[in-house]
TrEMBL record, chain A:
Domain ABC transmembrane type-1: 132-335
Name of the protein: Multiple sugar transport system permease protein
Organism: Microlunatus flavus
Transmembrane regions listed in the UniProt entry: 60-84, 131-157, 169-191, 214-235, 256-277, 316-335
Membrane topology note: Multi-pass membrane protein
Any one GO CC term of the record: plasma membrane
Biological process per Gene Ontology, one example term: transmembrane transport
UniProtKB/TrEMBL annotation, chain B:
Keyword Transmembrane helix carried by entry: yes
Mode of membrane association: Multi-pass membrane protein
Domain of life: Bacteria
Family note: Belongs to the binding-protein-dependent transport system permease family.
Name of this protein: Multiple sugar transport system permease protein
Domain ABC transmembrane type-1: 94-308
Amino acid sequence: MSGFAERGRRRTPQAVRQVTPGPDPTSAAELDAVAPDATEAVLLDADVTQPSRKRKRRSVWYWLAYVVLVPFAILFVAPFAWLISASFQNIGDIFSWPPHWIPQHPSTSGYQKFLGIGPLKGDDSPQAWRWFLNSAFVACSVTVLQLFFNSLAAYVFAKREFPGKNVIFLLFLATMMIPGQITLIPNYLVIKHIPLFGGNDILGQGGSGWLDSYWGLIMPGVVSAFGIFLLRQYMVSIPDELLDAARIDGANEFSIYFRVVLPLCGPALAATGIFTFQGAWEDFFWPLIIVSSPDHYTAPLGLALFVVEKRTQWDVLFSGSVIATLPMIIVFIIFQRRFIQGISVSGLKG
Amino acid sequence: MTTYPSSARTFRAEDRGTPPTRRRNVFWRMRRSWSAYAFLSVPLLLFSVFTLFALVFAFYLTFHEYNALEPDTPFVGLRNYSDMVHDQAFRGSIVNTFYFTAVSVPLTMVVGLLVALLLNLPLRGRGLLRTLYFLPVVTPFVVVAILWKWLYNGDFGLFNYYLIKTNVIDKPLLFLADQHLAMPAVILMSIWSGVGFSMVVYLAALQAIPEDLYEAARVDGANGLSRLLHITVPMLRPTTLFLAVIGIIGAFQVFTQIFVMTSGGPAEKTTTVVYFIYLAAFKFYEFGYASTLSFGLLAILLVFTVIQLRIYRKGDA
């Protein structure tokens, strides 16, 4: 196997040279004529995972890849660059023509307005940093609770045998693909009629229940069928001998789960945890529906309502957007590898 | 029903020691079941309330006129369903959603594939490039929508500035207020934010293609194009199916961009199905009718997924 790869690697430079002979294409027609060779280079190089240091001459197609990728990447990043630049401009410079990529009069007025130098809408409305605390609290709670309860359920489905297990597991699986819009309205009503909360009586009447509260933001997100499924798939591969050994040593079921299985699920937990956090942090639809007072706005909700209602304060908006993005970027940079692995393994974001 | 042989082996350690009698088995089963049920209790409770009950209740709502502002919720039989079938505005939102899906999903996948093919080359700095292409995926969607709303701004937006500067247009375009431009503008933004995801999925799939296949094809004299068409593309088929299914499901539920950027306008040209459901439920409080619409959405999604799986299986045979 490794011999194959080795041979392939050695052959590659030759092959590249073979397929890129002849004069440089000068006209568009000629370029079209040799275009298939581009794929040749893609494929030949595709099976070399490490660039060979010995190769001095790179093929034309190697550089052409840069010619395509780099400008395209710049176009991709330009909106971010603009966002960051604009967040440091005062409102007058943002509304200037032509636009300035480098702030003319660098200012942090947007950030200052955002981070609590005065309320946003009126005297009684809370400061915007509150949105971020709300988001952080909700996203962290959902992530921790979901990791705990998902893994608990996943452990039971993967490693335990009990009457009714298959039926329950199939129920979880069957609901995985159902779009969230269907459960949205009933859940709104359920949240509204939670007994004994928000002024409700024991029958769930009369008050607002968990509407407009942290409970309502967090509880519906605590269990995810998809997360349970992913973790279960991972736990199935943990050898039963380990569990048996712990059992013989007298460990109870909870410590088998907590001390034996959970530590072995690190990668799976990290992947699902990151996605859960990301999903909870940027969730918009659910907060939009159940939250009504600015006290409980999450960051996306606050920003979106701000842009829809107050159309002019773009300096505040841009600063807020940067602040709302930072936690995601930080999480991404720290867990970059896990992030990518998670996507390729589970193939799902959020 | 599915069986789980690995879980059944859990008992092996005990079984080896003492030959299991029936009584002992039942005893152990009950003991174990007790803790298993305890583990499952909270997840199962939440799942039952927020998913199972919600599903049943949503179905119940579709047969009732359930307006949140009215105390009476009379049973109306299939009237909501017949209303849905004859609702011109809903039909319009389906057309808009189809438009959005038909353009954004294939383009996102194709661009993602091309970027993945190029970034699979052993380029120096490809890690950085991959990160750059992936950045929009980790950015909160609301932020993306706000940012692009500004880029499309009719007076000060960057799009207008550069299009005028390069003499493509001579007057600023009101992208999000123009009936013909609003949806393409939303689509372009959605592609931008989705390319990184399909790129990463394709990259992972590309790296999983065994090198021997290319080696063998090369020995047989296949050129680069035919290797791309006959090895790479077929080997990526499961990934493509996966991205198509996920992409279509996601595109049919497009909401945030619409809410932030266009509010469904102009002239309802960007009112998508989910935005329409949102309006019905939380602007007009017609919970019964909105539930019916969401079941309509589910039906469309099911049909699409089944068709895709069919096409996929046919291609296999």
